[in-house]
UniProtKB/TrEMBL annotation:
Organism of this sequence: Ruania alkalisoli
GO molecular function, one term: oxidoreductase activity
Family: Belongs to the short-chain dehydrogenases/reductases (SDR) family.
The keyword Oxidoreductase is assigned to this record: yes
Gene: fabG
Record keywords: Oxidoreductase
Protein name: 3-oxoacyl-ACP reductase FabG
SUPFAM superfamilies, A to Z: NAD(P)-binding Rossmann-fold domains
Presence of the UniProt keyword Nucleotide-binding in the record: no
Amino acid sequence: MSEEQKQGRTVVVTGANRGIGRAIAERFVADGFRVAGIARSDDLPEGVFFAHADMTDTTSVDAAFTAIEEHQGPTEVLVANAGITKDTLLMRMTDEEFTDVVDVNLTGVFRCVRRATKGMIRKRTGRIIMISSVVGLYGSPGQVNYAATKSGLVGMARSITRELGARGITANVVAPGFIDTAMTAELPEATQEKYLASIPAGRFGATDEIADAVAFLADAGYVSGAVIPVDGGLGMGH
């Protein structure tokens, strides 16, 4: 894709203020796209337009997309990355701990996709990229709520593919494994070693490696309904 074409495309990244989302936003800025970040904090990378939104509130999400459209045009690439965790074992998990995670990680993505696709349908082109997790299909104790939402994104992406594929819109999922972020750095050394022993690559991934996969999907016009694992081989076969 030419630099001129990239400058004309608007990318929206949710949760662009930290971790994987921040790396993705930085990658798109570096590649010459017009980038907006939807987050609750305005601590975004340089060159990223800030739009505040609460993923659990439809009115808030719609207002964020309206602000982005007024600033830089209709969304052509949506990266749905924002998410939360409320980990605890199944028998201790409350209804609120389950539904709160669902409302952000799954329903929040739905809210964003529904709003973004309005412009995509009119232009007959669009890329929807959802950030899932290896635990969505691999499973993880203490993460029944989180894993359920990340698995749900696969069904969402594939249903969107069947609904909107003929309109030039793709929907795909990137499933990161253990990534080297501030969160993993805070884990006890023994826990890190346990995780590393289960990863064939023998190391944690880098946020830039997730951004690589997302950048590929932003250009790929004939890949849709796919789950792209970026996990060092941890979830092979899932």
